[in-house]
Specification:
single chain, mainly beta, 10 strands
Length: 113
C-alpha cells in the first residue's frame, strides 16, 4: 500500500536526474532509497512487489558480473537502493541484487528509463 511522502519539494519527471523504474503500468523515480510516484495530489511512496518477475528467493549461484565478488551492498556502496517487498535491494546493471550472507541474491530485472 502506498503512502504520501510529506514535505517533498523536488519535481520528478523524465529529466529530473533520478532513475526511472517502470512497474505496475507507471513510472516511479528512485530518490534516496525510495520509489516516488507523482500523483495530482502529491508524491506516493511505492515498493516493488515480490512476484514472478522480482522474486525474493535465495540464489547462491548468481554470478554478480556487475561488481567484484567481494563487493558488499549497503548504504554508500555505490548502487541505488530499491524498496522490494519487506526489504531493500540494490540496482546493478538493470537487476536487483540482495545481500545475503556471503553472496548476492538475484531478485530479477527491472525496467529503467
Amino acid at each position: 500500500m502506498a503512502h504520501n511522502h510529506e514535505g517533498h519539494d523536488h519535481n520528478h519527471g523524465p529529466k529530473c536526474g533520478h532513475t526511472a523504474i517502470q512497474h505496475d503500468g507507471h513510472t516511479d523515480y528512485l530518490h534516496d532509497g525510495h520509489l516516488h510516484h507523482v500523483t495530482p495530489t502529491g508524491i506516493e511512496e511505492h515498493v516493488l512487489p515480490v512476484d514472478a518477475t522480482n522474486p525474493d528467493a535465495c540464489t547462491p549461484a548468481h554470478d554478480c558480473g556487475g561488481h567484484p565478488k567481494d563487493h558488499v551492498h549497503g548504504p554508500g556502496c555505490g548502487h541505488e537502493a530499491v524498496p522490494h517487498g519487506d526489504h531493500v535491494d540494490y540496482l546493478v546493471d538493470g537487476h536487483l541484487h540482495h545481500p545475503h550472507g556471503d553472496h548476492c541474491d538475484d531478485h530479477g530485472k527491472v525496467q529503467t528509463g
